[in-house]
Amino acid sequence: MGLSTKQTKGYRDYLFMGSLKYNDGHCHVWKQPNYYDMAHGERIRNMIDSFSCHLRWQELKAIAKDKSTLKREEGILARETWNFYDRPTYYTAIRNLQGFIAYNLQKPVEAQDFFEDVLDKDQNNVNALANLAHMFQELGKLDHHHRYVDKLAVILGGKNYEEKARAYADKAHAIRYFEQFKRCFRYMRYIQRAAVIGKHCAGPQRAEWFFDFALALYRRDVQMLYLRKLSSSEENELLDNSDCYSDTKIKEGFLNACNYFKQVAMISTSRDYQALSWVFLGILVNHDPEHRSLAEVFPEKPEYRLTPDQCFEKGLGIHPEHEIVLRRVGSEYVKLKRFEEAKQLLDKSLNILQSRFGYRYRADMYLKMYEAASVKDEQTKELLRNAVADLEKALKFKEVHADFSDLGYAYFLLGETNQALNKFVQAVRCDQDDFFDPVLTHQRWAECLEKDNQPEGSRAELEKAKEIRKRVLDTPLEEDQCDSYFAHDFEHYNTNPKPGFVRILMDYHFWSACSKRRLSELSSPGPTNGRHAYQFDLFVWHTEENSRWAVAFVHKLESEHKLRCCIERRDFMVGREVPGNILDCLKLSYRCVIVLPGGKWTKYTINQALGVSNTREGLFILPIKVRECPVPEELGYMTVRECEEGQVKQEHWDEIVTICRQT
Asked: Most C-beta atoms within 10 A of its C-beta, which of 17, 107, 272, 308?
């Protein structure tokens, strides 16, 4: 539900204490809002802070100061065109990004125009509203600032799943845009959230979010397979981060990516997305064809059990004139040594749109054709010259490690050693690592020096290759620690009212700082009532996985029923071992609620609770199952109160309150 005028006013008063000038031209003096307004306002402020905007995101702080990068990207984006009605999320993400660039290049009027263009197309766009709110606050135009903040409060105070998913997708796009050539996945958590929320949306935009998340999983798959290959080059080596690219994690990511691409192919109304989804399904299998197949992913769906070749043909059939479809299939045909078909597709792609990737893929094709040739003569050397020409064109778009390294390799094969060495130097000086193998660059460099009769320099480069390899393997993929709890909670818990049930989690729990497991909802349980035998009415034991639900459960009991609860995060004694804290809390509590599913320390807690229950009269342990899971056999004889989508039956809730209240 949205905010009433009173609630919005209470939020704004709370956020901007002091003398404020509103749109009516009068000066209003801040007054202490009532408790509800203040608490609700705090939640809304947390929501707005947690979403933030381009002009405030920490992930873009360094970029905001890099004027050369901003000017370069400003020019690139100005040359491209987008259709809002075909790809609405992408359109608004690009426009917001252009606004961010203009603002940080000291072009505030242009920045405002970009943000307002977004709102012309999407009046509830969270990031455009927040960007404008920030701009007007900087200018001191607080009446304009308040207007945008008020609208954000209404949007973020209601469900508005599409607006929130789009905001997360926008943030993922902005971070990825400036890190697309980095071994970095800081944007992963945001696009994952957009995809998870998208499952609750009916609009066509969810296909965009699904596709971007699947693409992120595909990019990570490339990196994990690369790391596994790199690690296998040395036997009997202990690797601290090998769990980042374990077989289990690689398979999980592969299956997840395939399922999301399949959903896009099914639900998208865009030929672009339909075609590209089939192409990437083929690419994912082609990453490891000996161990992968779509039959494994979709055993019950024979229509999806296609070979990579069939996937590529299907994608080309859906959109035979799409430049990205053409170049991606062309690059895969290069891997399969289908050079003639690859050249036709890559040439066609470049005729439609000249791009760095198009030139790079075609240069790679020429290099592979040269390597595959049985005879190395002047005719095959022409392939190398073609590769050089294409790589030089690619570097005019953006200077990246991969293109310099391949250019150096092409010059080496042509016998132009000095040219090759200079390109290798440029490669390692380049800021971009662009998913290319930096170990290979130093190995090529060493080979070039060896041919130039520089054995000492060659040995030094081989040692450097070993150092680089170790550094890459010692650095885990920077995935931003994807918020798996967010996805898990959002999929299993329902915040809509259910007749006959009591809601524990409300909508704001998924958008405010509560998503970071803060205890901002919980206040001190208050002074002990001397008439009661126990300090607490109940001790709530939960795992980290259930922490969001457990905190909300305690808050509801304390705020609505005045029960005194004991919960680990607030009431454990700092510095004391966990077992001692658990035992103390059990002894100080009238009842014990065990939240299932359990985890670490749950078995210990149950056993200690059973021991304490032998000294008490009446029921002591109340198990509550918030999601489907096995019940520990120690609790098998007890009544387990089961939730539905995280909500408690009214009769069970009444029982819990009655049983836990000391009389």
From this structure: 308
